[in-house]
Amino acid sequence: MRMLGWLAFALIAYGLMWVMANRSIYFPMKYPSGWWEAQDQIGASDIWLTTRDGVRIHGWWAPAEKSKVVTLYLHGNAGNLSHRAAHLREITMAGSSVLIIDYRGYGRSDGRPTERGLYTDAEAGYRHLLDAGYVPERIVLHGESLGTAVAVDLASRVKCGGIVLEAPFTSARAVAWKALPLIGPALVWGFDSKRKIGSVRAPVLVLHGEEDEVIAFDFGKQLFDAANEPKFFRSIPGGGHNDIVEAAGPKYREWLREFYAKALPGKG
Fold it and tell me: Any catalytic annotation for residue 241?
C-alpha cells in the first residue's frame, strides 16, 4: 500500500509539473494591455475571424500600396499583436501587405492557447487570405519565435510562396533540454519544426540574432540545415531575441525585399 501511495504521489506531482511547464510556454497579454495606439500609427484595420473549431480571433490588416504580396504574420509567445508594430511597418515598407493575428487567449481573441489551437488559428488566417482573393503563391508565412513553429506547421500542410523564420528553434523538447537537462524534455514536447520542415516546399529565409538569449543561435542553424532549397540564412551580429528589427537596422527591410523578389518573382 505504501508503494502505491508513493506512486500516486509521484504521478500527481508529475502531472502538476507538466501542467505548469506547458502553461509556461504561453505569456499572453489580454486587451486592453498593450500598445494599441500603434494601430492608427501604422494604418491597420481590425479583422475578426472564426476558426473551424468556433473560436473568435482578432487580427490587424496593414496594406502595402500596390503590392500583390501578402504576409501572414505569426507572433511569438508573449504580449499580443500590438507589440509587433515595428515588424508590420518594416514588412509593409519591404513591399508586402500584412495580416497579423492574435492567437486564442491573446489580445482581443477568445479562448485559451494550446499547440493545436495555435495551428488552427493560423489556418483561419490563411483561409481568410485565400477568401480575400490571394493565391497561395503570393502568400508569405512569417513566424517569430514560437510563431516559427506555427508557420512551419502550416507551410508543411498548405501551399505558400515563401516562409520567413525569425529566431526559430528545432523543437520545444530541444529548447527544454537546453534550459533544464533531463527534466525539461520529460515535461515539454511538441512544436517539432525540425521534423516538419522537410515537408515545406517553398523558399525559406531564416533570421537569427547571434546573441539570442532565449533561443540559441545554433537552433536556427540546425533548422536551416534541415530545410529544403532554396533557403537563405541571415545572422544579426549583436542581435538578441527581441530586438532583431532594431539590431538589423535597414538590412532587415532589405533582406525581406530581396526574399520577396526571389521567392515570388514577378509578384511584387
Answer: yes
Domain positions in the chain are: 28-263
Give the cell for residue 245.
Answer: 528589427
- Report in angstroms the alpha-carbon separations of 91 from 49, 170, 190, 229, 254: 22, 25, 29, 23, 10
Catalytic annotation on 58?
Answer: no
| Active site (annotated) includes residue 235 | no
The amino acid occupying position 101 is: I
Catalytic position from the list 67, 145, 171, 193: 145
Marked catalytic residue, from 102, 121, 153, 212: 212
Q: What is the pTM of this model?
A: 0.90
The CATH number of domain 28-263, selected from 3.30.390.10, 1.10.3720.10, 3.40.50.1820, 1.10.540.10: 3.40.50.1820
pLDDT at position 101 over 70: yes
